[in-house]
Design brief:
There is one protein chain. This protein is 42% helix and 11% strand. The chain has five helices and three strands. The chain has 114 residues and is of the alpha/beta class. It is globular, with a radius of gyration of 13 Å. The N and C termini lie far apart (34 Å). The longest helix has 13 residues. Helix 2 links the parallel strand 1 and strand 2. Strands 1-2-3 form a three-stranded parallel beta sheet, with helices on both faces.
């Protein structure tokens, strides 16, 4: 994935995006660049895993497109929420006018409660 779909969605005026990523929350390096651009434009990007069980990691892998890299670029890691649940939560937050910079905290409090 070279990020063309994410770029098109961002350019079309999306209010938020959920990516169903590989493994524990990984995407290609080129898609990671587009994730960063999307976040910079004020659009929250949530990364979930498409695997059947488990969630996204937060601090294991550090290569370009890994969960550490995506978090550094401003993406929200969905933790235990799968892509469908992440979409519903993001949709609710956007509809409730929650600021993009508050989305991370809301996901962390719901997906991985302390």
């Amino acid at each position: 994935d070279r990020g063309e779909t994410l770029r098109a969605v961002r350019d079309a005026g999306a209010d938020g995006v959920v990516i169903a990523a590989f493994g524990v929350g990984h995407v290609s390096a080129r898609l990671a660049d587009e994730v960063e651009e999307t976040v910079r434009s004020g659009v929250p990007v949530v990364v979930s895993t498409r695997t059947h069980t488990g969630g996204t990691l937060r601090s294991t892998y550090g290569f370009d497109g890994s969960e550490i890299d995506l978090a550094r670029r401003g993406a929200v890691l969905s933790g235990s929420l799968d892509p469908r649940k992440s979409r519903i939560l993001l949709w609710t937050l956007v509809a409730g006018d929650v600021a993009a910079d508050e989305v991370v905290g809301r996901f962390e409090s719901i997906a991985d409660p302390a």
